[in-house]
Amino acid sequence: MRGSKMASWCLCVLAIGCQGPVTAPNTADGPVVPDGSTTRDGAQPSSDGPTPAQVTCNPGELTCSGNHVWACTLSGRDAAHLEDCGAGGTLTNPSTCTTAGCAGGASACCVRQQAPCEYAVTSPVSVSGAGCFPPAATLAPACGTFTVTMVYTPAPAPNICTTDVVETVVTLNRSTHTPGSAIVLGAGDSVIYISNNNGVGTVCSSWSGTINWVSDLPSWRVDVDLTCTTGSLHFVSSFHGRL
After folding, report:
1. Which residue among 15, 20, 68, 220 is the one 20 to 30 A from 7 at the CA level?
2. Among 71, 93, 112, which residue terminates a domain?
């Protein structure tokens, strides 16, 4: 009897010793990852960036989802990620996804919450819009220049020439002026007005009058009320925006 027990004990030891290591199951595409999916190289799928959206949409059309721009695929059953609007803009003027007013008639785009530059000219012509260039951002506001540039081209019409244009450049010397008060143009300042209306050109760079530099960046504004000293041109305009 004792010999029988010894033989049984030995068999158990041998059975345990023959058991190999436990391995993870495999599939034809690679090892199973924690979420149950597989990758061909065995790595877990990346979670960086948004995943393709499962939607019903118009093929080729852009749309907003969250704060991202998506492009509908040709199947019309899903969309591919194009742009993260949150990555654009600034801390003081972030960018968001919108489906209104996009350039080129696009159905969705990223835009700043506030326009970086807008203008409203009331004399000698009446035009307004956002087609201007704001002052450059600076970490040293007491030096350098504050410059705003506007170029306006009227829409085609029977009474509009293809050469018609209004261009202005307002430059203020930051080192000699303080925002928040009316100033008279001096050294380092300049205002240039150029226009072509039905083949008649107008240019002025010498002025009398005042400029009200309301505020500097990031929420900036300057109002101009000047009369050309070499003619009768009266230039009145407001420029403002937020960077």
Report:
1. 20
2. 112
